[in-house]
Write a structure and sequence with these properties.
The protein is an alpha/beta fold. It has a single domain, classed as Rossmann fold (3-Layer(aba) Sandwich). It has 9 helices and 9 strands. The strands form 2 sheets. It has a 6-stranded mixed beta sheet, sandwiched between helices. It has a 3-stranded antiparallel beta sheet with strand order 2-1-4, with helices on one face. Helix 6 links the parallel strand 6 and strand 7. Helix 3 packs across helix 4. The longest helix has 15 residues. It starts with 7 loop residues before the first strand and ends in an 8-residue tail after the last helix. Bound molecules: adenosine-5'-triphosphate.
């Protein structure tokens, strides 16, 4: 059973690669307008979950809906904008041209809309005049901000950002977080992250996945309280290491 009133609903999702079960009976919902975090240790199944929600992986068991549509259909009608973990801009194009390129795809021939997207992308990226430089000259943090701007400027119903701050220095990560936080309420944003402080700061709700299974879902504060810990990092350790998958559903 699926509840279509959620931005994203994932119900009894199981994904196997060959004989290997990567996601096992995963259920959670994302409310409209929230920043939702998928967290878990390396190999837990975060990227696989995001790729399924983004409509890229199409074979799975269970039910996944994005505003009531199958992800692949939601993607076709432009509800979804996705930034993969290993995304990169076109190095030979300027930041501006990168935004233009993506805006053209999403605006489907509507030039005014394309311009609006690019203007919005410039604001979100906040790169100043460097937006007119080739992306090859950008630092890693600048490239990431460009990619996030590219993902968010099209006002998707659901923006999916896979590890948006991984491998960034402190200052760049802060800027990226501020960018995402600034978009709260405009799009529903689903991110994956390893950084518990970041998740506590950014996310309204989270799902914690370990070895493909949900071990906790709810507001970060609720999970901290239920695990009788001081912060999400301690809760994470308790749930993924010390409790060794006993599970807790908030
Ligand atoms: N195309 C694939 N074929 C086979 N196995 C895969 C494939 N994609 C992912 N896996 C496996 O599925 C499991 C979950 O991978 P996934 O990338 O979803 O984890 P993750 O939580 O995002 O990890 P990380 O934090 O390291 O990015 C891993 O064991 C991975 O090796």
């Amino acid at each position: 059973m699926t509840n279509d009133s959620f931005a994203v609903s994932v119900t009894k999702l199981t994904k196997k690669f060959g004989d290997k079960v990567v996601l096992d009976d995963v259920t959670f919902e994302v409310k409209e307008g929230e920043v939702f975090g998928i967290i878990g240790p390396n190999g837990a199944g975060k990227t696989t979950t995001l790729r399924i929600i983004a409509g890229i992986i199409r074979k799975y068991e269970g039910e996944v809906r994005v505003y009531g549509l199958k992800p692949v259909d939601a993607r076709k009608v432009g509800y979804i904008s996705y930034m993969p973990e290993d995304a990169f801009p076109y190095d030979n194009l300027t930041g501006y041209e990168n935004l233009e390129f993506y805006a053209k795809i999403y605006s489907k021939g509507d030039k005014a809309k394309a311009r609006e997207y690019v203007e919005r992308g410039i604001t979100i990226a906040n790169l100043g005049d460097r937006i007119y430089d080739r992306a090859s000259s950008y630092s890693r943090g600048m490239k990431r901000r460009l990619l996030i701007a590219r993902t968010l400027m099209v006002k998707p119903k659901v923006a999916i950002l896979d590890e948006p701050t991984t491998a960034l220095d402190v200052e760049s990560a802060i800027k990226v977080r501020e960018t995402i936080r600034g978009m709260r309420g405009e799009s529903t944003i689903v991110i994956s992250s390893h950084n518990m402080l970041e998740v506590e700061y950014l996310c309204d709700s989270i799902v914690l996945i370990n070895h493909g299974r949900v071990v906790a879902v709810g507001r970060p504060k609720e999970i901290v309280e239920l695990t009788k810990t001081n912060n999400l990092e301690e809760a994470f350790i308790k749930l993924t290491v010390k409790e060794n998958d006993k599970g807790l559903i908030a």
